[in-house]
Every structure is written in C-alpha cells, then in structure tokens.
Write a structure and sequence with these properties.
The complex is a heterotetramer, with two copies of chain A (87 residues) and two copies of chain B (154 residues).
Chain A (H helix, E strand, L loop, with lengths): L3 E6 L1 H7 L3 E5 L5 E2 H11 L1 H8 L5 E4 L2 E3 L4 E2 L4 E5 L6
Parallel strand pairs in A: 1-7
Antiparallel strand pairs in A: 1-2, 3-6, 4-5, 4-7
Chain B lengths: L1 E7 L5 H9 L7 E8 L6 E8 L1 H18 L2 E9 L1 E4 L3 E9 L2 H18 L2 E7 L4 E3 L4 H11 L5
Parallel strand pairs in B: 1-4
Antiparallel strand pairs in B: 2-6, 3-5, 3-7, 4-6, 7-8
Helix pairs in contact in B: 2-3, 3-4
The chains are: A alpha+beta (87), B alpha+beta (154).
Chain lengths: 87, 154, 154, 87
C-alpha cells in the first residue's frame, strides 16, 4: 500500500479504457513516467491499445504537465490524457 | 492586480464580469473581453466539457498570473464552464483590464490562446444523429499557443 | 451579418450588448468585446465627449461595414457615448461575433483602433483644480489606425 | 442667400473662436477648402488665430473627411476641427 501511485485517465482515453483511475505499485525509489507507462501497458492490453491510439499523449505528474522522463515516486498522482481542447 | 478564476457548471454573466473588471481600479482605461460559445452547424447539438478537477483551477490561476506578469494590467478574469452545453451556450469567458487598450486586448488574446491547449479541458461533441466525437486539438490552436511562448516579452 | 451602431448620452449595458452579439447566429463561436472607460489619475474628475452629430453615426456605420468586409464576422457593434462622463464611466463599446476567435478578436481591435482617430469625437478633460483641457490626439493612436490602413487584408 | 456654405467648428476650435457656425458666401462655381479657409481667416482675426493654432487641422465636407484641395460648392457643409480623439 505504501509504494503506490494513482494513475488517472481523461476524455477519450478514459472512455476507451473504461476506467478513470488505477492504483499501481512502483519501487520506492521511483520510476520514470515512461517506465510507469510500460508497466501499466503490460498489465492491461486495453490500456496498451488506448495509449497507443493517442499519438500526442500528454501526462501530468501531481497536476502539473510533465515529460515522460519525469521521475514518479510513491504517493504521486499521474494523469494521462489526449491534447487538451478547452476554450 | 486582481485575478478572478472560476470553473463552474453554471452560466457566467458577461455583464457582471465586465463590471468586475471595469471597477477594479480608477486607473483602468480599457477592458478587453472574449466569450467562447458552442458553435452550431453540421448537426451539432451540444458539447460536454470534461476537466481534471484537481488540476484545472491551479492551471487557470497560473495562466492568469502569467498574463499579469506579461502585460500591464489592473486585473484579469478566466471562467470556464464544465458539463453539457447546448449550441449557443457560453463555454469560456476571459477578460483583462488595463490603463491602456493595447495591454487589455493583448492579454485577452493571450488568455484565450493559451487556455485552448494549455488547461485540462476536453470537449466531446454530440450530434443530432446520436454520434459523439471527442474534439481533436487543432494544429492552429497549438500554433497560437506556441506563438506566445516564443515571444515572451510581448 | 448584423451591425448595431449607436451614439448616445445614456450608459450602455455590456451584458445586453454581449448577448446581442452571442445570439446573432448559431454559427457564432466567439465574441470579442472592448469597453473604453474614463481613466482617472492626476486629479482628473470627468470628461466631456463632444461630437459632430450629423457625421458621427454615418462614420460609425461605415467603420462597422468595413469590419464586416475585412473579417469573417457574424456581426459587430459600435456604441459611443457623448456628454459628460465621470471617472470609471464607460465611453465606448465595440464588439464582434465570428465563427472563429481570431476574426472576432482582430475585428474588435480594428474597430477600437480606427474609432480612436477616425470618428468625429473630441474629449475635454476636467480636473479637480478646475482646469479643462482638450485631449490631444496621441501619435500612438494615429499609428495604430494607420497600421490597419497599410494592411488591408488582415 | 443662394451661394452660401455653412461652416462649422468643433472642440477646441469652436471654443477658441467662440462660435460654432458661420454662413459664408462663395462664388457659384465653388472654391477649394483652402480658399474658403483663407476667406474666413481674412474676415475674422479670431478665426485666423484659432486655425493657425491647429497644426493638424482636419476638415470634413458634407460630413465626410476631406482634403484642403476638395471643391466646395454652394449648399455644402464644411466643418473644421482638431484631430479626433474618440474611444
């Protein structure tokens, strides 16, 4: 329970995956966003497909837009989503 | 320099928001405003605006603060609605007050250009024939946002 | 494409005017607005706006028609007040509705830039110490108006 | 009475001259704005001074901005004023 991150999906991604959040165990030392992505893709083919269908996938770590190199540590909130279309 | 930011399901009142900006300071000479609304056509019936509740307000506040840092303003406002909105309904209101009109109008453009691709909102369109379509980010919107990034002193 | 033009002593209602532009067409996706108001400071108490009654409305109509010809709009509005206006009071309202925000915002800037030096209004300032001063045309305003003339396709 | 034009003054010009309109007789064949200006300056030193004090004097003929070369014919309305300062 301690070494977990919350993963959120929004918009088309949430709809395609059919769930809006996951709780994922990671090493206490942390992983990159890219490694976290590979981990959740490996665990669920529907997630792998949905993420692959987003050529311009965006990620936010702790509610701030981030890169896929960003380090994620336990307790973080990581959100994946398509390009934003507000306004 | 006063910032007003809101994320809400309820409609906004442009008259009230304009007055808020006009009344910010006796040194305000101009107020620029922009209202984005659901554009009809091609059988579009409504849109649903989804957002990332934990992130949205912080992003809009950061955007408003960036406008204050960039332009000589007396204040600015960003209001974005969420939920289902029918054709003609207001989606977004941005506005800026300034001593001079140039800053007010530039800040208004800046706020809406940056908000389009820089805040965690997503639009799902709903058509008369029952189709629903997630709106793709327009390349022109991303260019408009990038133009402000490559021109930090404007 | 609907034009609304008025020259009046009475205040304008930004909410009503914004709604007029929003409601012009279901194809309207964005409405740009600008409010100019009496800027205080340096002891300014009020301004009196004088105009050329026979010429003013025609000039504003021509300006609005030029905006329609230049930008892809669903409509536009120009309202200018005359008479004595205290600090904070609205002087001018311009606005434009369009399918896309770029046209709405450009037309809004165009209307206010051209109106500043191209319509027969004159401002007389009134200070706390009793002085009254006719406002000089600002060179920057004349440049802003000329910029639109030398760029007829924008 | 037939060969007259109405001349109007606005803003600082009106205030300095102390009147807002004149009725001026011109030749039936018309005159340029510049000639009309010379005529009214010759008739009234206060007008001459007020017009001289406006280095950027503007003129409208029949409610349209015009040049000083524009022909003015009887019945026209000619307005002199400082640069406009609306908005």
């Amino acid at each position: 329970m301690a070494d977990r991150v919350t993963v959120l999906f929004f918009a088309a991604l949430r709809e395609q995956i059919g769930q809006e959040s996951l709780s994922v165990t990671i090493p206490a030392s942390g992983v990159s966003v890219a490694a976290l992505r590979t981990q959740i893709e490996g665990a669920d083919p529907a997630i792998a497909q949905a993420l692959a269908d987003q050529p311009k996938l965006r990620v936010a770590v702790n509610r701030t837009l981030s890169t896929f190199e960003q380090l994620v540590t336990p307790g973080d909130e990581v959100a994946f989503f398509p390009p934003m279309t507000g306004g | 320099m006063v910032v007003h930011v809101a994320v809400q399901a309820a409609p906004f009142d442009v008259g009230v928001e304009a007055e808020r900006l006009s009344a910010l300071s006796p040194l305000t000479g101009g107020v620029g405003l922009f209202v984005g609304q659901v554009r009809g056509g091609q059988g579009l019936r409504a849109m649903t605006l989804e957002h990332y509740p934990g992130m949205t307000e912080g992003t809009l506040h950061a955007l408003a603060q960036e406008a204050l840092a960039r332009f000589d303003l007396t204040g600015c406002t960003v209001i974005h609605r969420v939920g289902r909105l029918e054709v003609g309904a207001g989606i977004v209101f941005v506005g800026a007050g300034a001593a001079h009109r140039g800053a007010a109008l530039m800040a208004t453009s800046f706020l809406i250009d940056r908000l389009k691709t820089g805040a965690p909102f997503w639009k799902r369109e709903e058509y008369d024939d029952g189709r629903t379509i997630w709106v793709d980010a327009r390349e022109t919107d991303e260019e408009a946002a990038r133009a402000w990034m490559s021109n930090p002193t404007a």
